[in-house]
Amino acid sequence: EAGVVQSPRYKIIEKKQPVAFWCNPISGHNTLYWYLQNLGQGPELLIRYENEEAVDDSQLPKDRFSAERLKGVDSTLKIQPAELGDSAVYLCASSPGQGAGGELFFGEGSRLTVL
Amino acid sequence: AQSVTQPDIHITVSEGASLELRCNYSYGATPYLFWYVQSPGQGLQLLLKYFSGDTLVQGIKGFEAEFKRSQSSFNLRKPSVHWSDAAEYFCAVGGYGGSQGNLIFGKGTKLSVKP
To answer: What is the model's pLDDT at position B96?
Structure first.
């Protein structure tokens, strides 16, 4: 069974440029999460989807960040424009659903460097 | 507010020695508690979790953790460390916002293993 797939693995951009990250969750997993991991820190939740609905986006900086999961499967996280402080690893995770015991399956992450 | 504290940023142990990684949490209700491991360049993997019941939980790779409500702790232990255990370990508490998967992570403890 394939795991959570993220791309790109690495991205280097100039500040003020846009960037997008893509995530394909494990097949059949209804719940999808985007987490942000700064250097030396633990991951922080940005947004949670139940199927195609964003049910918790309270931590997503909506002035420059956006996310979508149009068909309830794969998801895209966008930053426009990027700032220096956005340099971090963006992690996608999925789970079968609320009753699944809370285990999240994480992708390998997309590491963003903003110059 | 919910929080997780991992007091040790970096621990070095000799191969074959025992290991204990500390975790303290602050949470208003009965917590869902997790330990995840992150190897370099890899996604986070669940080691074990506690929801209720027996306060000593067994996980994968020979790890165990003990929930102590009176101390607000959930320390991770392993009786004999292997070189392949070198990684970063994250304690997390989940369940805020009505979702077990909304995790608050500690800052992590990096484990190095000496031969």
So the answer is: 66
